[in-house]
Known about the structure:
The complex is a heterodimer. Chain A contains three helices and no strands. Chain A is mainly alpha-helical. Chain B starts with a helix and ends in a 9-residue tail after the last helix. Classes of the chains: A mainly alpha, B mainly alpha.
Amino acid sequence: MNLDTIPLQAFLIVSSVLFCIGIWGLLNSRNAVRVLMSIELMLNAVNINLMAFSSYIDNNLIQGQVFTIFVITVAAAEAAVGLAILLSLYRNRVTVDMESFNLLKW
Amino acid sequence: MSIAVTTQIICFSVLSLVVIIGALGVILLESIVYSAFLLGGVFMSVAGLYLLLNASFVAAAQVLVYVGAVNVLIIFAIMLVNKKEDLKPINNLKSRRIISTSICLTLLSLLIRVDLSNVWGLADPKMSIGEESTIRIGEHLFSDYLLPFEVASVLLLMAMIGAIVLARRDVMNEDISTGLPVDQELIEKSSEPLLMKNN
Lengths: 106, 199
């Protein structure tokens, strides 16, 4: 293997592992704050992917970096609104246990 | 293999180890406060990976927005909702764990297979603009990505107002629907939970 630089696949594998860790945390966390953290992990995995492709495949126009900036913007908005919803839920139910948020269950 | 490449590979290995072990700690540790601080470490390491990819501006934005804003917000939320509670046991926890873990492992093997088997059309490294990426990002944001840029500002405004509206405490003296007086002291502790009837 020709190792004159870090291969693109190394970045892709790191981002894949990070994404799957995020999905596992999203599915298995009981604490609602931890669910939001898992979503942030998944968004970061996507960002690593975009940045790696932008640097290795599109290294002159770097549109992936612009996409990453937009993803960071949306992630910040998502975190703010998500935590506000969490506070309001905590006020109503006095718990952050995901199992007790079954208002939409029919 | 020059010394610069060796340094890059060492940096990449250390950063990706910190990212993956930190992420595992975020989802597996018992204490949510440790998870939040580990999440900050993961964000910093991801910023380091961006620096390895010649993207200094995005690395700075990552540190400012994620570590400086999102992580602090998460820590404040933990502080506000941090109550020791005994979680009710779930009856089919083991089967849930098995199913979700197998789903994640399947997805991981699929992704890694795609990563390794696909032939990526790599560009010529000599075309790379390297350190001028900040200038190029600015050109993009004010020419062909101008509309998304403006929409993002509207989105941030909406998120700000929405977060204020959702997280604000009620200041009315009486409940609108029932007419009963509302306790204006710490609502989180004193008042009866509104939606606990079906449990």
